[in-house]
Structures are given as C-alpha cells and as structure tokens.
Write a structure and sequence with these properties.
With 284 residues, the chain is α/β, with parallel strands linked by helices. It has a five-stranded parallel beta sheet, sandwiched between helices. Strands 5-6 form a two-stranded antiparallel sheet. The protein is globular. It binds BIS(adenosine)-5'-pentaphosphate. BIS(adenosine)-5'-pentaphosphate (AP5) binds next to α3, α4, α5, α8 and β6.
C-alpha cells in the first residue's frame, strides 16, 4: 500500500531519531552525573529552592557565599551590585544615572533597583529559585519584593507560597574593613579574592582566566565608611522587618568561608524541607 510506506518510514525515522536522542540524553546525563555525583544531580538539579535572600554589611561575604549557593543548587545569583556595575561599565542610561551615587557609597533609588530585579527574576533560569545578593536593602524594597513574589510567582501558580529564607551574615566591624580593603575581583569572571585570606596563585592575576585583578571603585577608605553607615541606617531595619515576620536566620560570618557556607546550606536545606512538608499538608 502506498499509504503505509511513508508511515513505516516515518516510524523507522522516528525510532532512529528516538534512539539518537536517547543516546544524546544519556551521555549528557552521564556527563552531569560524573561532575556532580548521581544523588546530588537528582536532588539539586530538579528541586525547587525558592527565593534565598542574603543580608549583611559590605564585606560580610554575600558575594562569596552566593557563588557557593549557586554552584550547589544550580540557581542563579542575582546581585544588584553586579548588575548596577555592569550598567556603569556599559555606560547605559541607567549606568550613567547611578555612577556617581555608587561612587559615593549611597543607595541607588528604590524604583531603579526594583526594575532591574524584576527584569532579572523574570528570566527562565530563575524558575527554580535564586539568590538575592544585596537586595532588598531598604524597607520599601523588602515590601516590593513580597508583592512581586506574590503576583509573579505564587498567584501565577509558578510556585506554591514559598516565602524567602532570609540569611543574615554577621561579621565584626574591624574584620569587615580588613576584608574590603583586601578584596580583589576578576573583571572577566567575577571571582572574588582577598590579599589576606584568599590570595590568587599568581599575584594580582585571576586563577581561572589569567585576567588582571581589579580593586572596586567604591572600596576606597572614605567610601567604605559611608557604605557601612548606609547599612547601619537603611539596611539593618530590613533585617528587623524579616525578624518580626519570623523569616530571619543569622549565620556567624567570622569563620572560614567553607564553614560559613556549610551553615548556610544547612539552613537552606532545612527551610526547603519545612516548606515541602507544609505544602504537602496543605495539599498544594
Ligand atoms: P554591592 O556590590 O552589593 O556591595 P556591598 O553590599 O557593599 O557588599 P560587598 O560586595 O562589598 O561585600 P560582600 O558581602 O559581597 O563580600 P564579598 O563576598 O565580596 O553594592 C555596591 C553598591 O551598589 C552599593 O553601595 C549601592 O550604591 C549599590 N546597590 C547595590 N544594591 C543596591 C540596592 N539593593 N539598593 C540600592 N543600591 C544598591 O567578600 C569581601 C571580601 O572578604 C573578599 O575579598 C572575600 O574574599 C573575603 N571573604 C569573604 N568571606 C570571607 C571569610 N569567611 N573569611 C575571610 N575572608 C572572607
């Protein structure tokens, strides 16, 4: 029958296509399993982590810890500082507008920061969760985040009501100064080093891509003090806001980066577990 030939061919082609696809999928899975370990892949690549907020003064280790969380759970780091610095580097209209504000160590206006966060959280890679590094930093930003999550994630059915876990990293004031003045960053890959606690293998050169490390514009003495003051007056109340809602956990940042990281991952895991149990109990 003329009609059956193309059909049979179609099935054969489909079967060949299926087996090729299966081979490709299998080798990708093998590759990922090799790199992550089987159980880690199953647990981390597929599960929803939800929003993680890292709070803490300049130099507390938010950027350093965000990178660890990102690698562990495969969710993106959303750093408002990095996003703003990128705008400045590209000299976009926003970058030109905020350049002087950042150089003085003051906060960029809430509406501008909320707009770039909204844009970033709508990207598909944020669907299982994200780490907010340096946001929210004012009570207005915190209130905005609550309504954004409600409308864009919970009400839309993307996630059940997974409220953010808010982790405050606490570090002694004098250690903060030492950390900030010793910080060096890679302008290409964003790796963070420290001349005192985490020097690169070759002086001033990134271990990963060989780029010359840079000192951040706002890591000058007079600006550092302004940033620490801004934190005291404008961002500390954000921690109080979350504490009143019972959503704040505090982690001791005066330990090695690995020890801080272990404490943070433990908090995120237990928070994710609680939420799953609560949502199962509610049938969502
Ligand atoms: P942003 O880039 O967010 O800077 P920040 O909050 O001041 O924080 P830092 O990046 O200085 O420190 P960190 O906590 O990330 O520490 P890190 O891991 O690098 O903001 C910059 C500016 O942008 C603001 O001033 C404002 O103008 C604007 N802005 C940003 N967000 C905004 C918002 N939401 N609203 C309005 N304006 C906004 O670590 C520091 C150093 O310590 C490194 O060298 C690291 O290697 C070392 N280190 C880290 N952990 C340890 C450890 N456990 N032990 C020893 N050394 C360590």
């Amino acid at each position: 029958m003329t009609g059956s030939l193309p059909r049979a061919d179609g099935f054969a082609a489909a079967a060949t296509g299926r087996s090729t696809r299966r081979r490709i999928v299998r080798s990708v899975v093998n590759l990922v399993q090799e790199r992550l370990g089987a159980s880690s892949m199953a647990e981390q690549v597929l599960r929803t982590i939800g929003p993680v907020v890292l709070l803490g003064p300049p130099g507390a280790g938010k950027g350093t810890q965000s990178k660890g969380i990102t690698e562990h759970y495969h969710i993106p780091q959303v750093s408002t500082g990095d996003l703003l610095r990128e705008h400045v580097k590209q000299q976009t209209p926003l970058g030109v507008q905020v350049q002087a504000v950042i150089a003085r160590g003051e906060l960029v206006p809430d509406n501008l920061v909320c707009d770039i966060v909204a844009w970033r959280l709508r990207q598909p890679d944020a669907d299982r969760g994200f780490v907010l590094d340096g946001f929210p930093r004012t009570q207005k930003q915190a209130a905005w985040l609550d309504s954004f999550l409600k409308f864009e994630f919970f009400d839309s059915g993307k996630w059940a009501s997974w409220l953010p876990i808010v982790i405050r990293i606490e570090v002694d004031y004098n250690k903060l100064l030492l950390r900030i003045t010793g910080r060096r960053t890679c302008p290409i890959c964003g790796s963070i080093y420290n001349v005192h606690s985490k020097p690169p293998l070759v002086d001033e050169i990134c271990d990963k891509d060989g780029a010359k490390l840079v000192i951040r514009e706002d890591d000058r003495d007079e600006v550092i003090r302004e940033r620490l003051d801004t934190y005291e007056h404008q961002t500390k109340p954000v921690a109080e806001y979350y504490m009143a809602l019972g959503r704040l956990v505090t982690v001791d940042g005066d330990q090695s980066p690995e020890a801080v990281s272990a404490s943070i991952l433990k908090e995120i895991d237990s928070h994710a577990c609680d939420r799953v149990q609560r949502n199962q109990a509610k049938g969502t």
